[in-house]
Amino acid sequence: MTSKPGDPPAKPPRRWRPGTGIYVIAPVQPSLSALILDIQSRFDPKLARMMPPHITLIGSSGAGPIAPTTTVAELKAALAAIAASTPPMTLALGAPVRFMQTEIIVLPMRPYGPLRDLHERMVKSGLSYSPPRFAFTPHITLSFYRQLSAEERRAVLSVRVDEPALVTEIHCSLSNDPQPAKHLLTLPLAGVSASD
């Protein structure tokens, strides 16, 4: 029996290797991306080289990666209507924090509101994904790979980013560590907000 968009996600047919799967991210606008990239380059050059700054919507907190065997047609069938009915959003960034008792440093966002609505609609789209390690905790990562010294940790935690994140589209990418991620699909957020 196949699931339909809106059904709860099916149990994955089998386990897949850690480091593989499809992630759904929201890139941020060029001005904020440049600012974040500068911070990442100072504190975690490897992270800065990996991929542009973004918000992970599926693949980290709230829902693990989507099954790597999922086709682009299946992604589009499950996610296109969700993206088309979601208005672009402007999201405030909080002060940097350590992520969930790790050494990872992130800029957090409010976990409720339109971003959570988008995340939950994707989670309920019928796609298969691996179990999450953490509750949905939207953020932009500043430092991931490097073990920071106490002085570096204080410096990155003192950074303030006043520019909000503008989310206008979502990207689906297939991760297959240690290979670079492969872009699969871009969907614009095309909904109209109640204030328009």
Which helices and strands occur, and which strands form pairs?
Elements: E1 20-27, H1 30-43, H2 45-50, E2 54-58, H3 72-84, E3 89-91, E4 97-98, E5 105-108, H4 114-123, E6 139-143, H5 150-157, E7 165-167, E8 169-176, E9 179-188
Antiparallel strand pairs: 1-2, 1-8, 3-7, 4-5, 5-6, 8-9
Description:
A hairpin with a 2-residue loop joins strand 8 and strand 9. The relative contact order is 0.27. The protein has a single domain, classed as Cyclic Phosphodiesterase, Chain: A. It is an alpha+beta fold and 196 residues long. It is built from five helices and nine strands. It has a four-stranded antiparallel sheet. The protein has a three-stranded antiparallel sheet with strand order 4-5-6. It starts with 19 loop residues before the first strand and ends in an 8-residue tail after the last strand.
Write out the strand line-up for the largest beta sheet, numbering strands in chain order. 2-1-8-9
The shape is globular
What is the highest CATH level, the class? Alpha Beta
The CATH topology comes to: Cyclic Phosphodiesterase, Chain: A
Strand content: 15-25%
Mean pLDDT: 88
Distance between the termini: 40 Å
- Unreliable residue stretches: 5-14
Give the proportion of residues in helices. Answer: 25-40%
The CATH H-level homologous superfamily = Cyclic phosphodiesterase
Please give the CATH architecture.
Answer: Alpha-Beta Complex
Q: How many domain regions?
A: 1
* Largest sheet data: 4 strands, antiparallel
Output the structural class. alpha+beta
